[in-house]
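Minutes, project huddle
Topic: does the predicted pose make sense with fe (ii) ion bound?
PN asked that the exact inputs be recorded in the minutes so nobody has to dig through chat later. Recorded below.
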Amino acid sequence: MLSAKSLFQEILDNDASFRLFCSIAASGEAQGGWENGRIAALVPQSQRALAPKIARHGADEDKHGRIFHALMRKRGLEPVPVPPDTDYTMLLERNGIGLTHDKLKADRPLTVDDIVTYLAHSRVTEQRASEQMRLLLRLFGDHQDIGRAVRMISHDEDNHLAYCHEELLRLAYAGHGRAIQRILRECALAEIRIYRDVSLAVMAHMGRVLRWSRARNALLALGIHALYVWERAVGWRRMVTLEMPERRDALGGPAPKAAEFA
Ligand SMILES: [Fe+2]
Ligand SMILES: [Fe+2]
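Predicted holo structure (tokens), as shared on screen:
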């Protein structure tokens, strides 16, 4: 039977697919880390209280990248180049979602509108990250090495999502509500499309590495398309709501010293 658990188990058990999976994940995390680091450095004066939280957000993503590298190292594996069609973060940026890398590379301070854009983009992508890590945690929470890594990353992604909700609500009360709703909607609709395309690409690459049958490839593609149909019809709405999180100031204070893999 084809289940999410058996699918991931197969990817984990094979060195070549495990290396590809970790390389793709590490590269996305590292890009997120870089983006947040640049945004923290360019925060406008009026939002400067956010700078340490954005820096912490970036530091967390960098740490996640190192964790995926450490998981490969533990198995004596080297990272492989990430196929461009699986590069979720880059594809989002290319599709005009979030802040452009040109803007982040320039040394001009961002505007409050840019901060709204960054937070709305993060609210959507952190929802995805949080859900994916919760799935992995459910499937592999008991696994020796993977379980520990996944538990740490999942906790962080939940914090990132809580922080986005809280800060966006603050900006909504400050008069940015309409812009926030518009950007959230744009981001969510683009993200579900890119997520579908990246999922199809990742599964095609995995299928080649693991020599899956055509029937299996077709079944997986069908599942990915079905998820998209659901997300396009109703699921996207879960990505655009704002609720005050139970855990306030999730990224306040210094990063807790976690026993690192790296
Ligand atoms: Fe992350
Ligand atoms: Fe995150």
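Observations noted during the meeting:
- DSSP finds eight helices and no strands in the chain.
- The CA atoms of residues 136 and 150 lie 7 Å apart.
No decisions taken; revisit at the next huddle.
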